[in-house]
């Protein structure tokens, strides 16, 4: 840490800061320039609060040299993290982007979910998403089917081979969710539920952490740090839009710049959710494509067998025909399966090269 003192800082002010740092185990190096005195302090930053140092009389600025996110940051882990699942699916690094699709909530008709899951499989998606425990703004809205919903997800997964992503809202539900889910999702509203993050650190299941609606990127990475610090390295970051001043046309502002920023400062996989990020189904395709071009390792979007009658988020959910069309376009963009030719673009390209 570097502490820059004010030009007019007195000797006793400099001494007070130095003593404070030394008392907390820091090694001090005083650099006295003609105008400024700079204190270089080496030690464990967790032992003190930088805000406290900043508040000392005579302190101009406190700068951290090391990233505060020691485990989620790239400094300590330059290689991309790739999360691997038992069925061979991988997320992260240079792996082909994955698609996670499904209804906002798992609802009481299993057939609807199965219809969506079957279409998802047909389109080459890897994950079925759906909330069984729903974080709803209003207590009068549908709260989720809980264990029944998890059973439905598992059954749809058995029939299609898709992996299951579903939200965990409470530490108490973790053992139950562990039985049904392949990825535990932490919703935006719980991004800073530190007790939940710590408890998820004690599991080995991949956790998809959604960015809080008002969270800075720093806070987002520090939330991931809580999970990793407690022992679980399998964290996927999910950008899902933040609150800004303009909500007339979109529910949130999808922060596309966050994708390359997260990829620069962190090695963790980044997934983008253009459904919650925009709140409008017509924006899923353009923003999903933009996210992939910006470097996302995957997309999550909502699909419902009957969006007009969905229990939650119908306006941002695609119908199955819309889903197929959009997913075909997305697959083409990223060179996934080309359904017109029933062969992957890469294979086609190889064949073409051989023909020449
Ligand atoms: C969800 O993905 O079901 C959800 C509730 O999203 P968010 O937490 O991003 O609002
Ligand atoms: Mn939703």
Query: Which shape, going by the Cα principal axes?
Result: elongated
Number of helices: 12
Oligomer: single chain
What count of structural domains?
2
Ligands? phosphoenolpyruvate, manganese (II) ion
Evaluate the radius of gyration. Answer: 24 Å
Give the number of DSSP strands: 16
Which consecutive residue ranges, at least 5 long each, have pLDDT under 50?
none
Largest sheet: 8 strands, parallel, barrel
Strand order of the largest sheet: 7-8-9-10-11-12-13-14
Intertermini distance: 60 Å
The overall average pLDDT, rounded, is 94
Would you state the CATH class of the largest domain?
Alpha Beta
In helices, the fraction of residues equals 25-40%
Element-by-element helix/strand order: EHEEHEEEEHEHEHEHEHEHEHHEHEEH
What does this entry look like structurally?
The structure is a single chain. By secondary structure, the chain is an alpha/beta fold. Helices cover 34% and strands 18% of the residues. It has 12 helices and 16 strands. It has an 8-stranded parallel β-barrel, surrounded by 6 helices. Strands 2-3-1-4 form a 4-stranded antiparallel beta sheet. The radius of gyration is 24 Å and the shape is elongated. 41% of the residues are buried. The chain binds phosphoenolpyruvate and manganese (II) ion. Manganese (II) ion binds at residues 104, 276, 302, 312-313.
